[in-house]
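note to self: the first set is below, dont mix up w the second
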Amino acid sequence: MKEAERALDQLQRAFAGDPWYGAPLMALLEGIDAPMAAAHPIPAAHSIWEIVLHIIAWKNEVRKRLAGKAPADPEEGDWVKTPSPTDTGWRATIDQLEIAQAKLVAGISALTDEDLDRKIGGDRDRPLGSGVSAYVTIHGIIQHDIYHAGQIGLLRKAVRSGER
């Protein structure tokens, strides 16, 4: 198995597969409606919706970097303002998430093991995630997804406990 295929396996497990640590991102989003997604049950914390938009933005940015674009903040912004909390808007956001995942998978699938050694960006810039190899970048987006999935899991519990 090529190294890119191993990374794709981990990316897919974290997204909608069977990860070792628990529920994947898409399972955590099941049953969430627009008001729940837009809620702020933890003061000063992002909402589920804001986190999903953030995940989308970074999936898109990583895909572009892997295709040769110079590292930058996501075009959409790092933390995207949520639209009005309608079920149609929430469904559109979930659709965008699935599209961003599919495009990232396609981009990674096109890489060779040699491509994984290519450095993305110049000097190391930790907040921007640049100055590392494509391999590290891919594993970084996997880690990013898992980190935010954990936040979504906590927010989901907090929102649901407030419904009682």
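second set (the one i keep forgetting abt)
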Amino acid sequence: MKRQATVDIRAASFALLVEHAEQAYPYECCGFVVGAGLSERVHPVRNIQNEKHRENPKAFSRDARIAFLMDPAEHRAVLEEAQRQSLPVSIIYHSHPEHDAYFSATDRAAACLFDPAEPDYPDTAQLVLSVKGGRFADVAAFVWDTEHKDFVRTELILS
């Protein structure tokens, strides 16, 4: 897919993302937005990074203050529901506590897990919410650009 001009999300859905990010603070939150327009639904997913870090700090050196790992069962359930309802997975979101809203090298690697040259979900936008002092500070939207083979920042439109 060539670069999208914008990423659209309903204002009510965006408010749920902000609420999730603030409630998860000081840890990263994560989840999906499935569908578009009136069919759009927010699906928060549990971040299990702290659990993995406690179990195996060598393999999972980062804790949930600076990383996220979606609970596999919840992740799968969202994808299966989207498929059953023939709805697109339109957005994957996560937060950056006490950091700016940017798409880090770690975020890119996680988004291109199966093939480092291509995203796992090429038609799905990535939203990063910055939360500072427990309050929403900023958001940035990123989409896959096939020409540049990378995620690029794009405009986010609340409808």
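remember for set 2: Residues 6-158 form a domain with the Cytidine Deaminase; domain 2 fold (CATH 3.40.140.10).
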